[in-house]
Design brief:
150 residues; alpha+beta; Immunoglobulin-like; 2 domains; 6-stranded mixed sheet; 3-stranded antiparallel sheet; 2 helices; 9 strands; globular; disordered N terminus
């Protein structure tokens, strides 16, 4: 009789444990992992905001949702790093982001920087690119306008 009861109880206990484990796995995930599925994919400026009036040096904080930041050097799917294009637009998908005073690379995986801009209106375009600096295109760019006072 005991064997019969165990045969009935064991599958039920195993099912209950598996159900509990699945729920516990979801609860162990960081809140950011659970929320990130609801966020729109792309890059964004944490700061400054579009239309802000700022002074030098301008602190820029980068954000990205849907990709992972890693240093340049290798190409890994779903990973890359930030670039800023000063007074220019996005870089077409697959085109290497130029490296000059107006196209700044953050190939070490930086998520913030300080830049100096001349007084007046400027645009900053954040461009996400792969480990070989090949742009992910318009979908992975964001442009804001700033007014620099001094």
């Amino acid at each position: 009789m005991r064997k019969f009861i165990l045969l009935l109880v064991i599958p039920f206990v195993m099912y209950a444990c598996n159900t509990t484990n699945k729920t516990e796995e979801n609860q162990d995930e960081p809140a950011s992992m659970l929320e990130s599925s609801n966020e729109e994919k792309g890059v964004y400026f944490v700061s400054p905001s579009d239309g802000d009036t700022v002074n030098n040096p301008v602190k820029v904080v980068f954000g990205v949702s849907g990709m992972e930041i890693e240093p340049a050097g290798t190409v890994n799917e779903g990973k890359g790093h930030h670039h800023i294009v000063i007074d220019g637009g996005y870089i077409d998908k697959g085109v290497v982001v130029p490296a000059d005073s107006m196209n700044i690379h953050y190939g070490k995986g930086q998520t913030e920087t300080e830049i100096t801009l001349s007084p007046g209106k400027h645009t900053l375009t954040m461009q996400f690119a792969d480990g070989f600096h090949q742009s992910y295109g318009k979908e992975w760019s964001k442009t804001i306008e700033l007014n620099v006072e001094k």
